Amino acid sequence: MESKVSFAQLKQFPRLMWIVLFGDLITRGSFYMVWPFLAVMLYKSFGISATQVGLILSGAAVLSVFIGFFGGALSDKFGRKVIMFSAGSLYVCSFVLLANVETVTGYVIVIALCSMSKAIWDPPTQALVADILPDVQVRELGLQARYFVINVGCAIGPMAGVYIGITGQQSGFLVTAGTFALWMTLLAYGMRHFAKRQARRPKNEQQKLREQSESAAVTTADLKSKPIPKAPRKPKSTLLETLKILAKDRVLQCLIVANIICKFVYAQMDSTLIQYLTRADVPQLMTLISSMIFANAAVIVCLQFVLLKMMARLSLTQRIQVGLVLLAAAQIWMAVNPVNAFWGWIGAVVILSIGEAILFPTMNVHIDRLAPTHLRGAYFGAASFYYIGFALAPLGGGALLDFLGGAWVFAIAALLVLLVMYLYSILETLPRPDFNKPDRVSTK
Fold first, then answer.
1. Tens digit of each residue's pLDDT (9 = 90 or more) over 388-419
2. Phi and psi angles of residue 432, each rounded to the nearest 5 degrees, phi first
3. How far is CA 61 from each of CA 107, 375, 388, 402, rounded to the nearest angstrom?
4. 127 near 74, Cβ under 8 Å?
5. What is the pLDDT of residue 164?
6. Which residues, 6+ apart, have CB-to-CB distance to 235 below 8 Å?
7. What does the alpha-carbon distance between residue 321 and residue 273 come to, in Å, rounded to a whole number?
8. Which phi and psi (to 5°) does residue 416 adopt?
9. Which residues lie below 8 Å from residue 403, measured CB to CB, with a gap of 6+?
């Protein structure tokens, strides 16, 4: 399916969409002032091993993944606002606590709360973007724009943190809590305004928007699969019915496995690489870490929409395969790069970032295309299982680092990318449910 995304479509963004983008920008910026340095804080404060640091971060993240799925599914049933604001309040409280804990046990508990609240927040937020942008091409632009501003925040955050002196400091978590509280305030205003605007629309226009939204999603059209009829609008499903549908969607399940592995590989940069460089006593460690994070985000900011335009004629899975080749190349580069080669690490991160700019926004669009309208929150929630890869990365990478060394971490990661490429190659052969008749499965 050829992409017809155009910047002129930005005019179709409602005010609520701009608030979502602004909130992502400021909260991710403040988050990345401090969170990437959490492993360094734990090591320097308590002297614990790479495996122990990985166990703390992975344990919290694994728990949050499962909770995140139910957050997405519950937002279909109870509404986005209730779930998002409950998660947001927990998020703010968690980061306030993180600025004050002084023991390993305290860190373990509060890191778990932070991870859980973020996991609950993300799927309803992605579903909200899809809800407020009924046109499929405008929605793709919205998902791409959200990923773009998140990376602008990632680029600004670490360098701003170094400049104002809060990088690696616990007090920096208060800044994250404050910006998130500001976002929740703006979001409450935006939701009220959007609801009033929708209520003023003529009924025939509302029906037209619903039909646009329901005709946008589906199937594996980008996989060259036979289209599956969209289900008519129906009452909200029970959690059990939702789980039954997800259990029959083999394409979704294969995607989850493939993207868990993909996230595991990518996340070695966020956790294992930082621990590897820390233990190797690399000169100018904080500058190198901040520069890698900045380079990662800057490449995405500069190239994301350029790459989207260049790959407009490729299907979603073809774009993802190109991104996977670049991801594998970056892992090989990291495996052979001398530990003190500052610009070598930056070069590897640049290649990784180009792959990321192709991969991750496309994954979000892919899920949006697959999801039935009435189960959109559940599908984005199921996509949160991807983050099992992120969750296991600190533990798996830390153990490999302790027992095999840094080069083996990245060599093994490169091999895992080959497995992901195979899983994507078989997607078009897999069955999906018939959403009109939940007890049936289409075998194409």
1. 887 788 778 888 888 887 788 899 999 999 99
2. -130, 160
3. 13, 24, 7, 21
4. no
5. 67
6. none
7. 24
8. -65, -30
9. none
Distance CA 191, CA 198 (A): 10
User: From CA 258, how far away is CA 419, in angstroms rounded?
Assistant: 8
Assign 338 to helix, strand or coil: coil
How many domains does the structure of the chain reveal?
1
**For 233-281, how does the pLDDT look when each residue is reduced to its tens digit (9 = 90+)?**
444 555 566 667 777 778 888 888 888 899 899 888 877 888 888 777 7
Structure tokens at 338: 């001398």
Other Cβ atoms within 10 Å of 417 Cβ, number? 24
Show the domain range for 363.
12-442
The predicted model scores a pTM of: 0.65
| Residue 427: CB atoms within 10 Å | 22
CB–CB of 267/390 below 8 Å?
Answer: yes
Decide if 5 is inside a domain. Answer: no
pLDDT tens digits for 87-98?
889 889 988 988
The b/e string for 189-210 (b: 16+ C-beta within 10 A; e otherwise) is ebbeebeeeeeeeeeeeeeeee
Give residues with Cβ within 8 angstroms of 374, minimum separation 6.
76, 231, 233, 234, 236, 237
Residue 122 to residue 118: CA distance in whole angstroms: 6
Looking at residue 317, which CATH number applies to its domain?
A: 1.20.1250.20
Whether residue 411 contacts residue 336, with contact meaning beta carbons closer than 8 Å, is answered with no
Band of pLDDT at residue 217, cut at 50, 70 and 90: very low
Which residues, in sequence order, are CB contacts of 302 under 8 Å at separation 6+?
none
Query: Do residues 349 and 300 lie in contact, with contact meaning Cβ atoms separated by under 8 Å?
Result: no
Q: Rounded to whole angstroms, how far apart are CA atoms 336 and 157?
A: 29
Residues 6+ apart with CB under 8 A from 106: 97
> Is 4 inside any structural domain?
no
Find, among 308, 347, 345, 348, the residue nearest to 327 by Cα: 348
The alpha carbon torsion through 7, 13, 15, 20 (nearest 10 deg) reads -80
CB 384 within 8 A of CB 65: yes
